[in-house]
Design a protein that fits this description.
- The chain has helices at about 5-10, 25-35, 50, 60-70, 90-95, 95-115, 150-160, 180-195, 215-225, 240-255, 295-305; strands at about 15-20, 40, 75-85, 120-125, 165-170, 200-205, 205, 230-240, 260-265.
- It is an alpha/beta fold and about 300 residues long.
- The chain has an eight-stranded parallel barrel with strand order 1-2-3-4-5-6-8-9, surrounded by five helices.
- Helix 7 (about 150-160) links the parallel strand 4 and strand 5 (about 165-170).
- Helix 6 packs parallel to helix 7 and helix 10 packs parallel to helix 11 (about 295-305).
- About 45% of the residues are buried.
- Bound molecules: ligand G3I.
Length: about 300
């Protein structure tokens, strides 16, 4: 193939990007988006603060705009995200206990119902595990409603939208030797053994000097896949430049291509200037929209897989 999306499709995979609704009027941005990508993740527009800014008042305009653009181009959409400790609207930040549990489940139900049948997958729960060596859950208002909040969210999502894949998504879960990776693995194994509805695990894969591409990345992907879930690289960016960065992109794409159930890769933005990182050059296109060396190595890895 001659584009990321077409090359990924040759092995039945997708290649996606995060999209910001307010950039859909930027013709350079949209030109690259429409040419290269087959999956879209709204970068902020489906988060809790965006979709339920006041309790019980739902706001879907920007999310719908992205879905509509994607559909018009034959792209699919990963919904991001129904339940998360961050980007909660003020009203939710101040809630706790059974009131928060009900509000969270209502949010999951309402938003999943609005998008029913329109999305490829949902990141149902995002970033629920703690960093560091403890292997525990992240402390948050949602976690304090009870350890079963994650499975409750997945069950509510399945009930509202039975045909969309339901994913757990996190970062720093790429290194098979890390306690956080093992903790998420144990949860997914437990969910599969008890019939809690989960279809996929997303590895955000935000890599930099402090969080390098681990040598056992492929082992992590294949170990999760062996539990009977799809695995997806959901928010890829790699700090660096030139041939060093290109080689790292190649390794990440090769790792996914080597795992049958790694069925898609999403980069977290199009041009370096679109990245959430305030400085640096972690993406596949430069600020002017030119293809970088990292683009070519990612494309070649898709084509040789
Ligand atoms: O929209 C407001 C704007 O009205 C306001 O003037 C401006 C001033 O700060 O803020 C704008 O909102 C910002 C929003 O991005 C849209 O640009 C928020 O401050 C900013 O915090 C928010 O950052 C997002 C971040 O998640 C928040 O947690 C990034 O765009 C987004 O890329 C990033 O994405 C996360 C994933 O969801 C989960 N994994 C990690 C990843 C990177 O942090």
């Amino acid at each position: 193939g001659t584009t990321l999306g077409a090359s990924a499709a040759e092995s039945g995979r997708y290649f996606g990007t995060a999209v910001a609704a307010n950039k859909l009027s930027d013709s350079t941005y949209v030109g690259i988006l429409n040419r290269e990508f087959t999956m879209v993740t709204p970068e902020n527009e489906m988060k809790i603060d965006a979709t339920e800014p006041n309790q019980g008042q739902f706001s879907y305009g920007n999310g719908d705009r992205i879905v509509s653009h994607a559909k018009g181009q034959g792209m699919r959409v990963r919904g991001h995200t129904l339940a998360w400790h961050s980007q909660q609207p003020g009203w939710m930040q101040n809630m706790s206990g059974s009131a928060l549990r009900s509000a969270m489940l209502n949010h999951v139900t309402q938003v999943a119902t609005h998008y029913k049948g329109q999305l490829y997958a949902w990141d149902v729960v995002n970033e629920a595990f703690a960093d560091g060596g403890g292997g525990g859950r992240r402390d948050s208002n949602l976690q304090r409603t009870g350890n079963d909040w994650i499975e409750a969210a997945f069950r509510a999502a399945r009930a509202a939208d039975p045909d969309t894949k339901l994913c757990y998504n996190d970062y720093n879960t790429d290194d098979w030797g890390q306690a956080k990776t093992q903790a998420v693995y144990s949860m997914v194994r437990d969910f599969k053994s008890r019939g809690v509805p989960i279809d996929c695990v997303g590895f955000q894969s935000h890599f930099n000097n402090n969080s390098p591409v681990p040598s056992n990345y492929q082992t992590t992907l294949s170990s999760f896949a062996a539990l009977g879930v799809d695995v997806q690289i959901t928010e890829l960016d790699i700090e660096g430049s030139g041939s060093t960065q290109a080689a790292l992109y190649q390794r990440v794409v090769q790792a996914c291509m080597a795992v049958a159930r790694c069925n898609g890769i999403t980069v977290w933005g199009i041009r370096d200037s679109d990245s959430w990182r305030s400085s640096g050059t972690p993406l596949l296109f430069d600020g002017s929209g030119n293809k970088k060396a990292a683009y070519t190595s990612a494309l070649n890895a898709l084509n040789s897989g």
